[in-house]
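Retro notes (design track)

What went well: tokenization of the new backbones is finally stable.
What didn't: we kept losing track of which sequence belonged to which structure.
Fix going forward: every design gets posted as structure first, then sequence, in one message. First example under the new rule, 245 residues:
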């Protein structure tokens, strides 16, 4: 006899696939999760067919599995002789009132709100908005694939740019260093740091060599773009940064 489908067995196929892996906190997120689950349970139980294992046997090292025909949980209940007649009538009446497109639209809307809440934990999440008309939502499904991942909760969380964690040790002399570099671009970072140490004794230790190297790398990249792209250097540099991100 095949194993029954326990709740935990659907944690990945249903819950994580639709809710995602973001962290949700607060009453607003709780309300949106309740809205999502209310639409999700109807959509999955009435309109999402799935396979169920019928039998499994081993032939040497080979395991052969056979499955029942795909069916929704709603169809399986109707096909089961143990289901009471009043339950069948109630489910059929409920099925006739459901619209899968409307349910999918409500699921997407709740997912968008949950993502907005999770990605803006400071309380700046947008207020509840109106759902798209069904005609607009349905027409948008034809081209939704062009925007990449359709499921809002499956999209990666935007990476937060790492800010400087300590004061810039070269802030006071950055302009001066850049002037030296532009005047003599063949100089190494070690030579520029030594020149800085001669001018400001005891202020800039040898440990700043990596900071100077990173600064010179940026300046050299800017000069290279200017040589290659000329007056379009700034636009080209912006495009390269966007592609890298």
């Amino acid at each position: 006899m095949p194993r029954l489908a326990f709740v935990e067995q659907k944690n990945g196929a249903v819950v994580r696939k639709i809710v995602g892996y973001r962290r949700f906190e607060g009453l607003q997120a709780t309300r949106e999760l309740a809205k999502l689950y209310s639409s999700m349970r109807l959509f999955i139980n009435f309109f999402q067919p799935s396979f169920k294992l019928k039998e499994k046997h081993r032939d040497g090292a080979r395991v052969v599995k056979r499955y029942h025909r795909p069916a929704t949980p709603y169809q399986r209940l109707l096909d089961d002789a143990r289901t009471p007649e009043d339950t069948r009538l109630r489910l059929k009446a409920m099925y006739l009132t459901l619209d899968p497109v409307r349910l999918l639209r409500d699921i997407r809307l709740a997912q968008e709100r949950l993502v907005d809440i999770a990605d803006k934990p400071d309380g700046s999440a947008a207020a509840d908005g109106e759902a798209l008309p069904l005609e607009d939502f349905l027409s948008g499904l034809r081209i939704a694939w062009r925007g990449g991942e359709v499921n809002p909760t499956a999209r990666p969380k935007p990476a937060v740019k790492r800010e400087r964690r300590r004061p810039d040790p070269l802030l006071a002399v950055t302009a001066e260093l850049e002037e030296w570099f532009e005047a003599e671009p063949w100089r190494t970072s070690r030579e520029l740091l030594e020149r800085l140490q001669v001018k400001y004794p005891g202020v800039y230790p040898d440990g700043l060599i990596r900071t100077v190297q990173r600064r010179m790398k940026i300046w050299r990249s800017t000069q290279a773009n200017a040589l290659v792209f000329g007056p379009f250097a700034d636009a080209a540099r912006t495009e390269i940064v966007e592609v890298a991100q």
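Added context from the reviewer: Residues 7-154 form one domain.
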